């Protein structure tokens, strides 16, 4: 009998899509669900970007491109990164691909080897693909908790203790999914000081939410002294320009760019040709849509956080970036006799008609950090209000 490999059987997933599938199943069965589970802007891709793709198709840009991407797009990415991250990179340092996500796996493949116990440090809670790709590519995952008592930052002493001669990569994500935390320059400088002595240690800076920072300056760790050479900047047009389904992203690093290009050749061949022209227009054209979306998300953030904090048993910090709220529901679980946030999320879905993600969807939670849920507020205020009212009614029925 044919068998699935251990690697294939053990491959992790992104639970937002798992919950989304359950939401669609319930909706198809006639149930009304308010969904906060998927991190996808509800705003349409700006018209001038769509028109650029249509024109590209009319102009015959529908075949293969170089694996690294069309040269105008690589030039535009380099200019964009230099402007927004305050670094100095060349177009040759840029590789484009089918979204940002593939570059997580590509980076792990490029800096670690099988069967030599190379380690990769990654944040928990964090994007679940980090751990699944570390394991799938034969490296050893080393979870580093974002501590609630440190406002969901790493404990720098814990980080220093986890780095050793086998550590090859540290993954950081700011603005952060799922907590909405943003690392400031002072904190990133301290991180860089810890990393600096380890000459074989790379950093993957996952920055798809860079445009959604609300009260402070966005700072990339690549802009910190001596960090550019060892940092892989990963970003895409998905969130910033509401282009999640267009699948165009990029990674920036001089030394690894040729490796990434070969990896794209080995997997997707290239990003979709007309979509690259759309991304070119997004990055180099008018940026008013980005500012408008940031303002809209800031308003929604304030609204959902106020609403969550008005519900008994829920405490929610104000996220500095991205478009996620990360409320602490420990008190609610305890008062209502609900085992944990996973069970609470299940009951909210099936009893209240509200879809959210639990902290366990973002790595194994530590009991000392409490119980948390993740809400995506990349949805209309009307939907936020409806969902909050349903949760409020559900909680009142329990307490």
Describe the structure.
The protein has a domain at 47-284: Aspartate Aminotransferase, domain 2, CATH 3.40.640.10. Strand 6 (167-173), helix 8 and strand 7 form a beta-alpha-beta unit. The protein starts with 5 loop residues before the first helix and ends with a helix. The chain is built from 14 helices and 13 strands. The longest helix has 22 residues, at 288-309. 49% of the residues are buried. It is of the alpha/beta class.
Q: Please tally the helical runs, counting DSSP H or I stretches of 4 or more residues.
A: 14
Q: From the alpha-carbon coordinates, what is the Rg to the nearest angstrom?
A: 21 Å
Main beta-sheet annotation = 8 strands, mixed
The CATH homologous superfamily of the domain at 47-284:
Type I PLP-dependent aspartate aminotransferase-like (Major domain)
According to CATH, the fold-level topology of the domain at 47-284 is Aspartate Aminotransferase, domain 2
Question: In terms of topology, how is this protein built?
Answer:
Blueprint: H1 6-10, H2 15-28, E1 34-35, H3 47-58, H4 71-85, E2 94-97, H5 102-111, E3 119-124, H6 129-136, E4 140-147, E5 153-154, H7 156-162, E6 167-173, H8 185-195, E7 202-206, E8 231-236, E9 249-252, H9 257-266, H10 273-284, H11 288-309, E10 324-325, H12 330-336, H13 341-352, E11 354-355, E12 357-358, E13 373-376, H14 381-398
Parallel strand pairs: 1-11, 3-4, 3-6, 6-7, 7-8
Antiparallel strand pairs: 2-9, 4-5, 8-9, 10-13, 12-13
Helix pairs in contact: 3-10, 4-10, 11-14
């Amino acid at each position: 009998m044919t068998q699935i490999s251990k690697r294939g059987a053990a491959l992790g997933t992104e639970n937002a899509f798992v919950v989304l599938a359950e939401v669609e199943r319930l909706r198809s069965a006639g149930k009304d669900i308010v969904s906060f589970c998927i991190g996808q802007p509800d705003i349409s891709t700006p018209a001038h970007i769509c028109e650029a793709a249509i024109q590209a198709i009319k102009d015959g840009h529908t075949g293969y491109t170089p694996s690294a991407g069309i040269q105008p797009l690589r030039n535009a990415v380099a200019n964009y990164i230099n402007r927004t991250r305050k670094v100095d990179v060349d177009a040759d340092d840029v590789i484009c691909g089918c979204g940002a996500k593939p570059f997580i796996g590509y980076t792990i493949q490029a800096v670690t080897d099988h069967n030599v116990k190379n380690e990769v440090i990654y944040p928990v809670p964090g994007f679940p693909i980090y751990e699944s790709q570390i394991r799938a590519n034969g490296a050893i995952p080393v979870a580093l908790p974002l501590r609630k008592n440190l406002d969901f930052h790493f404990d720098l002493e814990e980080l220093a203790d986890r780095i050793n001669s086998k550590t090859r990569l540290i993954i950081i994500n700011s603005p952060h999914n799922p907590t909405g935390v943003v690392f400031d320059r002072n904190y990133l400088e301290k991180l860089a000081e810890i990393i600096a002595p380890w000459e074989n240690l790379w950093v993957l800076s996952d920055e798809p939410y860079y445009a959604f920072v609300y009260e402070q300056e966005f700072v990339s760790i690549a802009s910190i002294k001596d960090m550019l050479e060892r940092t892989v900047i990963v970003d895409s047009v998905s969130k910033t320009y509401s282009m999640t389904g267009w699948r165009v992203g990029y990674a920036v690093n001089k030394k690894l760019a040729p490796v990434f290009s070969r990896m794209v050749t080995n997997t997707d061949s290239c990003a979709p040709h007309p979509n690259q022209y759309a991304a070119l227009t997004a990055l180099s054209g008018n940026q008013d849509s980005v500012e408008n979306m940031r303002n809209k998300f800031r308003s929604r953030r304030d609204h959902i956080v106020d609403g969550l904090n008005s519900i008994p048993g829920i405490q929610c910090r104000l996220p500095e970036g991205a478009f996620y709220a990360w409320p602490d529901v420990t008190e609610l679980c305890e008062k209502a006799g609900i085992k944990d946030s996973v069970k609470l999320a299940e009951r909210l879905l099936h009893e209240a008609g509200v879809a959210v993600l639990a902290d366990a969807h973002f790595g194994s939670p530590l009991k000392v950090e409490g119980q948390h849920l993740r809400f995506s507020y990349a949805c209309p205020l009307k939907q936020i209000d409806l969902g909050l009212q349903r949760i409020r009614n559900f909680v009142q029925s329990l307490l």
